[in-house]
Amino acid sequence: MNKAYVALGTNIEPRIEYLNSAIASLDKNNDIAIQNKSSIYETAPVGYADQADFLNMVVGLDTSLSSIELLDICQEIEKQLGRKRGIRFGPRTIDLDILMYNYENSKMERLIIPHPRMQKRAFVLIPLNEIAPNLIIPSTDEPVVDLMNKLPESDKKDVTKWTQSGLAEE
Ligand SMILES: Nc1ncnc2c1ncn2[C@@H]1O[C@H](COP(=O)(O)OP(=O)(O)OP(=O)(O)O)[C@@H](O)[C@H]1O
Ligand SMILES: Nc1nc2c(c(=O)[nH]1)N=C(CO)CN2
């Protein structure tokens, strides 16, 4: 069995429905078993500022799929949920990024693991830290908690827990 971490992001309404549908689609795949889920965070857009806030979260899963087969499933779910490719880093109904696959450190044409931008992203490291603080990221040899603590305060403050009621928790 292989262990993978997948980051989910959405900034087109209904954001919560897109997250829930993507997780349900992953979980109903016979070759995937979701083991843990982070809280959902509301996050300011990074990379391309002129767009709506995102909801982000991370799931940990066990899978018998290879990393490329898992990427195919993630891209299929993106397609089913109406993701259109447009502006780089721009708005999307759902984005599924493979952060880690076992302790692989590999670059293929379609897939780079660990995800090349994860170490700098508060919207990835804060939820990942909730479910896997001690996970070592091979390209850096550092655990998630240390990478998260090194993020600038200004990035961390743009990531707040999201609740259905709309009342922020932190
Ligand atoms: N670890 C990875 N997870 C998902 N896609 C990846 C990964 N590494 C490389 N890719 C490739 O990146 C391509 C572009 O992905 P995508 O359009 O989701 O990028 P993006 O969401 O705009 O940016 P980012 O990857 O920074 O979140 C995909 O077609 C996929 O083949
Ligand atoms: N806050 C936030 N910003 C982003 C996100 C995301 O998921 N959350 N995804 C992006 C796609 O690459 C670009 N910018």
TrEMBL record:
<dbReference type="GO" id="GO:0046654">
    <property type="term" value="P:tetrahydrofolate biosynthetic process"/>
</dbReference>
<keyword id="KW-0547">Nucleotide-binding</keyword>
<keyword id="KW-0067">ATP-binding</keyword>
<dbReference type="GO" id="GO:0005524">
    <property type="term" value="F:ATP binding"/>
</dbReference>
<comment type="pathway">
    <text>Cofactor biosynthesis; tetrahydrofolate biosynthesis; 2-amino-4-hydroxy-6-hydroxymethyl-7,8-dihydropteridine diphosphate from 7,8-dihydroneopterin triphosphate: step 4/4.</text>
</comment>
<dbReference type="InterPro" id="IPR035907">
    <property type="entry name" value="Hppk_sf"/>
</dbReference>
<protein>
    <recommendedName>
        <fullName>2-amino-4-hydroxy-6-hydroxymethyldihydropteridine diphosphokinase</fullName>
        <ecNumber>2.7.6.3</ecNumber>
    </recommendedName>
</protein>
<dbReference type="Pfam" id="PF01288">
    <property type="entry name" value="HPPK"/>
</dbReference>
<dbReference type="GO" id="GO:0003848">
    <property type="term" value="F:2-amino-4-hydroxy-6-hydroxymethyldihydropteridine diphosphokinase activity"/>
</dbReference>
<dbReference type="GO" id="GO:0046656">
    <property type="term" value="P:folic acid biosynthetic process"/>
</dbReference>
<keyword id="KW-0289">Folate biosynthesis</keyword>
<dbReference type="InterPro" id="IPR000550">
    <property type="entry name" value="Hppk"/>
</dbReference>
<keyword id="KW-0418">Kinase</keyword>
<feature type="domain" description="7,8-dihydro-6-hydroxymethylpterin-pyrophosphokinase">
    <location>
        <begin position="88"/>
        <end position="99"/>
    </location>
</feature>
<dbReference type="GO" id="GO:0016301">
    <property type="term" value="F:kinase activity"/>
</dbReference>
<keyword id="KW-0808">Transferase</keyword>
